[in-house]
Amino acid sequence: MSENLRLQVEDFLFREAELLDNWQLDEWLQLFTDDARYVVPATDLPEGDHTKDLCIISDNMLMLRGRVNRLKSRHAHREYPWSRTRRLITNVRVHESGDEVQVRASFAVYRSRDASGRWSQTDCYVGEYHYVLLRRDGTFKIRYRRATLDLEGLHGHGAVSIIL
Amino acid sequence: MMRDGLIVDDPERGVFRVHRSAFTSGEVLALERERIFDRCWLYVGHESEVEAPGDYVRRQVGGRPLFMVRGEDGEVRVFYNTCTHRGALVCRRDRGNGKVFQCFYHAWTFNSRGELIGVPDEEGYPASFDRREFGLRGPPRVGSYRGFVFVSFSDEVPSLEEYLAGAREYLDLVADQAEEGMRVIQGTHRFHMRANWKLLVENTVDGYHVAPLHETYLEFLTTLVGSKSEGSTGTQKSLGNGHSVHMNTISGVGRPVAAWYPFFGEEAKEEIEEIKRRLAAKHGRERARVMCETMRNLLVFPNFLVVDFAGIILRAVWPIRPDYTEVLHWELVPREEQGARLQRRLDNLLTFQGPGGLANPDDIEALESCQAGYAVEALEWNDLSRGMHRQPTPSDEMTLRVFYRQWHARITGAEGPVRLEDFDGAGETA
Question: Is B360 exposed, middle or buried (0-12, 13-18, 19+ CB in 10 A)?
Answer without folding.
Answer: buried
